[in-house]
Amino acid sequence: MTCLTPVVFVIFRRPDLTTKVFEAIRQAQPVKLLVVADGPRNEEEVQLCQHARAVTENIDWDCEILRNYSSTNVGCRNRVSSGISWAFEHVEEAIILEDDCLPHPSFFCYCETLLEYYRHDTRIMVVSGNNFQDGQQRTPYSYYFSKYNHCWGWATWRRAWKYWELDSQKWLEFRDEGLMRSACDNPREEKYWTSIFNTLFLEGKPDSWAYPWTFACWSHGGLTVLPNVNLVSNLGFGEGATHTGGDSKFAKMPMGENLPISHPPFVVQHKLADRYTFDHVFGKVSQKWPESKLAQILINLRQLKQKLFSKYV
């Protein structure tokens, strides 16, 4: 098996996990490999970072390799985002794996096929290998379309990644014009994601590159391709993880093959699947709370105000 699509491999200080994921990459034998690494946060991590980088020296197939290593620690958001931006200075499209995201062997063919299939379709911004539907087959085809750009093993194009940015003014304009209602299904979901983006853009927390990427996709009407079978298992939950320090049902999820690829005849967001994702992945804590009547009243008043304003302008 030879993967013709470039692979971006983002590593840090976990040589054991890096070895497992690198072995999956080695089996796929990509013709171009771009390795991105952050620097150590302290003296204790120096050797761990060195060992993780050394894992990627074991190239035993015909492969062009490019490296982008930071000598100092710049943090998750800056290192991953700058590394991906660097990669797209060299390639037009890429498969992106972090050191804790173990892909199924068919993941590479899946990404390669769909990157080519939707290469010029700007409605599609992400191809992801994640499925969090708990065994529910959402379509009779190999995949469906979602607003959720899950990033535990994914792929994209330069044409899409160019929209990634950390622009608080753009967020404020999007929020204040009421555009979150277009992105969200209900007031609870709107409240949840508005809080996430407020904290991200106005307070700089958490140190995440993925939330700005979600906002970039939503603010440009971008869809994500999600498989009907999970293709990537996250091994990184627990001690040493950046954002997944606790135990989770999403840790080490089982995977399956998703070949041959069958394409749906239409490009439409699967809203039922996305509602399930919000309720069972993102909104699990907030779903314990009752719907906020005050929030709904405020939203209704805002809509009425806009209607009255447009009537007399």
Characterization of the model:
This protein is an alpha/beta fold and 313 residues long. The protein has one domain (7-164, 209-282): Spore Coat Polysaccharide Biosynthesis Protein SpsA, Chain A (Alpha-Beta Complex), CATH 3.90.550. Helix content is 41%, strand content 15%. The protein contains 11 helices and 10 strands. The chain has helices at residues 15-28, 43-55, 76-87, 106-117, 158-161, 168-176, 180-183, 187-203, 210-219, 271-282, 293-312; strands spanning 7-11, 32-37, 64-69, 93-98, 101-103, 124-128, 143-146, 154-157, 223-227, 232-234. An 8-stranded mixed sheet has the order 3-2-1-4-8-6-9-7, sandwiched between helices. A two-stranded antiparallel ribbon has the order 5-10. Helix 2 (43-55) links the parallel strand 2 and strand 3. Helix 6 (168-176) runs antiparallel to helix 8 (187-203). The longest helix is centred in the last third of the chain and has 20 residues, at 293-312. The protein starts with 6 loop residues before the first strand and ends with a helix. 39% of the residues are buried.
Question: Which descriptors apply to this entry?
Answer:
Spore Coat Polysaccharide Biosynthesis Protein SpsA, Chain A; alpha/beta; single chain; 313 residues; globular; eight-stranded mixed sheet; two-stranded antiparallel sheet
Mean pLDDT: 91
CATH class: Alpha Beta
What is the topology, as strand order, of the major beta sheet? Answer: 3-2-1-4-8-6-9-7
Distance between the termini: 62 Å
Oligomer: single chain
Q: How many strands appear in the DSSP assignment?
A: 10
Indicate how many domains the architecture comprises. 1
Number of helices: 11
Main β sheet profile: 8 strands, mixed
Radius of gyration: 20 Å
> Runs with pLDDT <50, length 5+?
241-245, 285-296
Beta content:
15-25%
Question: How would you describe the shape?
Answer: globular
Helix share bin: 40-55%
The class by helix and strand makeup works out as alpha/beta
CATH architecture: Alpha-Beta Complex
CATH overall fold name: Spore Coat Polysaccharide Biosynthesis Protein SpsA, Chain A
Q: Let me know the CATH homologous superfamily.
A: Spore Coat Polysaccharide Biosynthesis Protein SpsA, Chain A
